[in-house]
Fold this sequence. Notes:
By secondary structure, this protein is of the alpha/beta class. It has a single domain, classed as Rossmann fold (3-Layer(aba) Sandwich), CATH 3.40.50.720. The chain contains seven helices and ten strands.
Amino acid sequence: MTTTLVTGATRGLGRETAHQLVAAGHTVWVGARDLDTGREVARQISTASNPARAVQLDVTDDASVAAAFAAIDAAGGLDVLVNNAGIGKVALNGPEALEVFDTNAVSVVRTTEAALPLLRRSANPVVVNISSALGSFAANHDPEKPASQYQAIVYGASKAAVSMLTVQYARAVPEVRFVAIEPGYTATEFGGVANPHGRPVEVSAATVAAAAAAGPDGPTGVFLEDGRPLGW
Length: 232
């Protein structure tokens, strides 16, 4: 059975991705800053034959990350890491810009480095990084793409960093597959604001779950939108 950790999995895209992977038969760890909330989400998405688990995980805290992966290792290891946790802020000042980059990009380094010793023991190791078309130079310069019409100065830059981390890790660690995903404009609560627009979260999460569940012949070092390549 495939064991998968989804960071930031207590709501929105992360929660629904975890839900779909439980349904697909994965042993799922719900990464949650608040463990009680994580346990409740794990209870809600569990099935009778496949209970989800929760682990306390703050991706901006080195000690929390180390403890979470130690717990997952002790419980049997890890096959798939979904780096979903992220924040959205206008962040046109130093402290908030640092917070956005720390949560969205630096956290990918923290979790990936902590996960690699576990992933290297897997027969089919995968890291799925949630990026964004807002961080795609191609999409930002294509008038047909919504990203070209939207201002996201710091958030977009942080997601461009996520995409480059995907490329570089795929090159540096070829025994693990790395995939960046543009999940699509989705009706979720993000940045503390409920967004009723966009497509259903179930649709967007399905694209993430598909990348997480890809077999050993799946792609690596790619940026995908609805299963198709998106320009970097």
